[in-house]
Every structure is written in structure tokens, then in C-alpha cells.
């Protein structure tokens, strides 16, 4: 099974997927970010996005870009795809809720794409101040070819409120191009 999201091997990016145009995949290594006199708020946010007792490996993964650079690149990708964040988020939420309603059973999201919800006890705080806390647990979308995408309530909220899809190498990164492809919403 090929795992693109959820793999513990963060050093190696996923192989190219011929079904997603190369212009929509960013598999290149990114140089270490330069933070000249970074504002205290931005520095504090990046620290909260790092590994912690709440988030394990953190929200940035192995990505060396700043949060602003990650967000800008993902917003640009959505624009290049010719879709809206709202359309992508609606499709992600629909899949997430359908899987959760199945109480751990596998459900078909669309032909060639299934989902299973996994519950976990507890809650996790958003790394963005004022967003509150979110239920733990995830929904794993799996394509017929074995490609996986892991969704969480917090991950969906980060996209909705902050355009933050998380960094490359994060188990919970929702790559916009791969998500749009898997969910069949490309224009």
C-alpha cells in the first residue's frame, strides 16, 4: 500500500503520481526559513505549531518554510487548480462527517475512495490562539491505489479559519491538490 499522508517516513516524499499533474505537486526540498527579526507573535505561533505534548510531531512536519510561506503556497495551489477553498472544504467535511456517521465502519465516499473513522479520547487545542479545542480522532480516506489522506476536526478548522493545510511531512497535512484529486472536484 502506498501511503502519502500518514507515513512515518517523512524524509522521503511520496513518489510522483501520474494522475495528479506535476504542476500541482510540490515535492522539492525547501531551504531553512530565514526569520530576520521575526515578530514575537509569529515566533510564538511557530513554536506552538512545533512538536508538543498535545500534537506529538507538530503541525509543520519536516517543512522548513515559515507558516506564511506554507499558507501562501497552498492558497496559490488552490488558485492554480481552479477551485475554491470553500468547495474543497465542503468536500472534505462531507467525507469526514460521512465516515464519522459510520462509527468505524468503512464507507464509500465516491467510486474508488473509501473512508474509516478512528476515535480517540480527549481533545486537542488549536495552535492558533482563540480557536478553542477539538475532538481527537481522525478519518482516513483511502483510494483504490492505496493513497491515503488523514482528516481531523482540527485540521479542517485550520483550513477554514487560517488557510493552513499544515507543513510537508506532517501526518495530518491535507495537500490541496491531492485532496481535490481524491475527492474528484478538479475543474
Secondary-structure topology with pairs:
Blueprint: H1 40-49, H2 67-81, H3 85-101, E1 107-110, E2 113-118, E3 123-125, E4 133-135, E5 138-143, E6 148-151, H4 153-162, H5 176-183
Antiparallel strand pairs: 1-2, 2-5, 3-4, 5-6
What does this structure look like?
Helix 3 packs antiparallel against helix 4. The chain is globular. The chain is an alpha+beta fold. The protein contains five helices and six strands; from the N terminus they run αααββββββαα. A hairpin with a 2-residue loop joins strand 1 (107-110) and strand 2 (113-118). The chain has one domain (38-183). 29% of the residues are buried.
Number of strands: 6
Quickly count the domains: 1
Structural class: alpha+beta
From the spread of the alpha carbons, the general shape counts as globular
Key descriptive features of the protein:
two-stranded antiparallel sheet; 187 residues; 4-stranded antiparallel beta sheet; alpha+beta; 6 strands
What would a concise description of this structure say?
With 187 residues, the protein is α+β, with helices and mostly antiparallel strands.
Amino acid at each position: 500500500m502506498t501511503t502519502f499522508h500518514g507515513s512515518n517516513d517523512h524524509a522521503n516524499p511520496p513518489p510522483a503520481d501520474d494522475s495528479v499533474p506535476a504542476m500541482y505537486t510540490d515535492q522539492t526540498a525547501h531551504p531553512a526559513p530565514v526569520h530576520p527579526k521575526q515578530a514575537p507573535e509569529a515566533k510564538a505561533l511557530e513554536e506552538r505549531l512545533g512538536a508538543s505534548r498535545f500534537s506529538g510531531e507538530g503541525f509543520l512536519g519536516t517543512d522548513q518554510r515559515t507558516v506564511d510561506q506554507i499558507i501562501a503556497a497552498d492558497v496559490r495551489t488552490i488558485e492554480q487548480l481552479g477551485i475554491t477553498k470553500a468547495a474543497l472544504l465542503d468536500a472534505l467535511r462531507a467525507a469526514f462527517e460521512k465516515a464519522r456517521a459510520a462509527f468505524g465502519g468503512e464507507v464509500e465516499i465516491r467510486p474508488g475512495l473509501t473512508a474509516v473513522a478512528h476515535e480517540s479520547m480527549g481533545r486537542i487545542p488549536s495552535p492558533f490562539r482563540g480557536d478553542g479545542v477539538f475532538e481527537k480522532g481522525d478519518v482516513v480516506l483511502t483510494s483504490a491505489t492505496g493513497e491515503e489522506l488523514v482528516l481531523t476536526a482540527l485540521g479542517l478548522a485550520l483550513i477554514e479559519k487560517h488557510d493552513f493545510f499544515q507543513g510537508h511531512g506532517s501526518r495530518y497535512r491535507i495537500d490541496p491538490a491531492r485532496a481535490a484529486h481524491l475527492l474528484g472536484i478538479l475543474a
